[in-house]
Amino acid sequence: MEQGADPGFLERAWAWLSAFFLLAWEDHTRELVYALVASGWAVMRLAGKTVQSGQVGVKFSFGRVAKVCEPGFYPLVPIFQVIRLVPSRARTLDLPRQTLTTADGLVFTVDANVVYRVVDAPKALVEVRDYAAALAQVLSLSVHEVLSVRDRASMRVSKSLDRELARAMQRRAEHWGIEIERAGFTTIRPLQQTMQVTQLRGRVHERARAVARFADSGMSAPLALGVLGTHTRLRARSRALRAVERRAREAAELRTLTSRVDAWTRAEGKDRLASERSSLLRNAREILTARR
Predict the structure, then answer these.
(1) Separation between Cα atoms, residue 48 and residue 44, nearest integer Å
(2) Which strand (E) or helix (H) includes residue 82?
(3) For residue 127, is it left (φ>0), alpha (ψ between -120 and 50) or beta?
(4) Fold of 91-190
């Protein structure tokens, strides 16, 4: 006669497991709570995604764009589905200071910014790898495109320049699903050397007009220039220039002395006076150095 399974075995096993879990719960309550919360959060992260207000989500299924997700919670198949978020609010991008050359050869520094909004989230994520970095490059190119063809007279912040920059930006960014709301220049400033050149031009023209007025009144040009005077005072030669001239004189004197010593040694016998030649040249260098 076959013996059946012990009917009390399952009851004893369940009682044993219940006692074990109860004991573990009493001894490690805090750790188990943390583990349960972390497990629940991980399951929710894998099983769904919440799109916040001010964002737009793009759902990818098996690597393909499936749908555009408005704010809310969306269930996902873990690993095979993912939602990438894109800000739907207007954002501002500041361009690092740029240095450019105008059409008349002057150098300016420029600061600009752009306010943009993503209107087609799938294009912004698919057509370009990083639309924010791409917009920074496009803004730099557009600034050079707008300003490099202008001269000094038109290099000032104005609404027409801002509109032209916005059009140049929109032409490049619309392929990425991005709308340019506003673009403009914050500062357009000439370099110090450019300011000196432009101010020098202005002073020259002003003095030329003054000389012309004196000439119209019957005064000769040299006398008019004497009356106007000079904007700068005469300065002595700088220390660096004097040092350069002194080294040039010393080199010339040393070349002359060397040629004379060589001629003398050839006349007297080169082999016999070779040592005397090197000694003479060394003494000459020491004398020139001591004269400084």
Answers:
(1) 6
(2) strand 81-87
(3) alpha
(4) Tetrahydropterin Synthase; Chain A (3.30.479)
